[in-house]
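Entry 14. Two folds queued back to back today. First construct below, sequence then structure tokens.
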Amino acid sequence: MSETPTTSPQPATLPSSTPAPAPSPSKASFLRRALPIAVSAGLLAYLFSKIDLREALDYLSFDVLFRFLGPLIVFNFVTVFIESICLHRVAKACGAALDALTAARIKAACYLLSLLNYAVGAVGLSVLLRRRAGLSLADAGGMVFTISVFDIGSVLAVAALGATFSVSNTLGLRMGLVIALLGAIVAGFIVLRAKVSMGPLDRIRELDLFRAPRTLPLQTLLELFFLRGLFVLCYIALMGVLFWVFEVEVGVFRLAMNVAILLAVSALPIAAGGLGTGQIVFIELFSGLAPDAELLAMSILLSAGLVCTRALLGLIFAAEFTREALLAAREESAA
């Protein structure tokens, strides 16, 4: 007589909670691109609800547009020339072959990306440098990083100088903070270039990303400081022309300090091309010098002029590089 096998009761299994699926790369890439545009649209909508846009546009006469166009075109070519010399000098010091003309076309090609997002523009520039100068991506990124640090230092120096001689301390600019940031940049270069061992910091200092700031000759660093300072002065000059075109008087030191603040805000990757943030900060900085509607018109002309001329500069003089930069930025976003 055979026994029927008995099975021990199995414990009840609870339904396992499956983690929520991560967003797809394409969706994440779309959000990264759409968010700055949405921020700009929201800020502009808020601004237009406070200031009559039609009243602001009344200040944009043909005479104003015509007088601003010439200096704007000169500004674009001068700044591209400065950018090309910076890239050429740094690449040469790093042992890479990059002529000034190619450097100018590479930079012009990345203007469209930089207008949409400063960080994306830096990625596109690094990729084009890697391909055209035969560098590793880390070395190319280190060159772009070094130039960007000198941009920040130049902006801070101009802000400190303007705040020193300006009666108005707009937006609560603190001299102590500015000087501390400048000191941090100088200290960073000292740490990277020091010949003594710094223990655990040595592994960070030896990263390829920091090769350029670590090994560039002192003469090249001084050239960069001069050229990036000249670059900021070009922005101040263009802004001075803008106030002259609209016949609005502004002090030189207040203008310099406020331009430095505008450059810093425009570089923040929270709005497309600094649209929205630039207009709000512009009106706040120069409040009292002219009616808000006129200040809005000045800001719109400046932003629209820079966006259009720089986009055209890239598309006309470096179309193939622009396509390559856009593709490279798209590949980096998907990675």
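Second construct, same run, same settings:
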Amino acid sequence: MNNSIKKYLTAVSAAAGMVVMLGASGNVNAALKDDVLSMTGNCRTIAVWVRWPWCDSNYTPVKAYDTMTALENENSATQLMVFDTYDGKTRYLDSTLGCHVVPRINRAGTHAVWIDEKNKTSWIRDLAGLTSKRKLISGGNYFVVGFQWNSTTKAENVLVESADELTLYRVPFKPDYTVDTTQKVVIYKNTTLLIQNSNLLAKFDRFKLSVSEDIAYIGCALPWPSCMMINTSKKAILSRKADGAFGCEPNIAPDNSYRFFHNRDDHTKLRMWDANLSETAWDVVMNLNVPIPGTTLSNFTDCAAPRWTNNNRYFTNSIPLQGGYEINWGTFDIFKMTAAQVKVDNPSKAGFFLLGKFSADFKTVEKYVRISDGDIRHRDVSGDGWVDPVPTKIGFVAATKNPNQLVNITYKPGSILVDKMQKGSSGRLLSPKGVVVKHWSAVSRIVLDTRNLSKGLYVVSLESNGTHESVVVPVSQ
């Protein structure tokens, strides 16, 4: 990004009352960016995942963690990471040690939410890191477990689970990225028995919940390991548990295809059901051609938490299932290792985060890209991914690299001037929720009136002769 654009963004963001972290801390990994964009067809891609730094910077295991259970570690000693092909950086979305579970990206690809069970709060932060994290829902009455998006109306809902884990609601996700739980609508209230002929009701596992775009079906395990799809209108249950197998990590596709998968017993294969509620199913091997950071060990190739992104061809995955904890690290206590021993050990044991792509027939994994760095000092697992539906070169074109950049933009309160567009260019102004506010073509210059727009980060997206460029513009009024 050249200095003029930096100055411009700083000025307009200040006018919008925002704090801009230009060149936010993080390491640029050009090779990773290229690998991801190659796999996703040059579509902007974002990944968010949980990091557990079990060692300090000198490779010495943190002794305090040894006395804590896995759940206690999760509730007090994790951080949240983000990678975005926008700038090619991996950085902290939340560097504060605490509880970060069920991280989920909204369907517009602008924000992430996560659950803090220790403080009974669901937090939210914009993925660009322009603002600080804030509480989306607090008090423990509800936990955010995901998002639902209507691709036609562009309306988005937050999916929340009740405190007793028996009811799933949808709550409108407002343009200012807040929610009002008084507007909640019941999607499904569970009456499934945990044990037949008992008074015990099975509870939703917030780690294992997903919905179709139209909210017609919920994918879940109720109770685990009984994986299923629930028809929310008819209150009917459609079993999705493979014969003779445990079911784990159930996932329904994010569109309306009603594809479904779950992990099989050994967590090395998925059981995949075909589209349109078909009973046809097959196994997908998940641990082949994995770009691991160390050497392959047969005991460390199980999948932790495969999950569809917003695009059903792409998914996130974590390997190994329990890497980093004593139960998977052999017979000795990992926290008694010296720094020297940690340095020379196999980094594959630590746990790493992946983005994968299914083949067109969903019967194989076409490709994996390892998103996390493979550093043995931390365990990177459990997250979410977002792939832009439209291929585009997102970012700011430096004049030194491309003197014929597609557009010049100037901003002032009330308007955006898009100038010097090339012949044949077309453009769109997108709201913070991805809604097209205005579309234009066959002009070289246009003034966009922003006086009646809600505050937020808008995107000017342009295309010319197959080349795409998008610029983020804060709107203050």
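Quick look at the second one. Helices lie at 3-15, 30-39, 70-76, 339-344. DSSP finds four helices and 32 strands in the chain.
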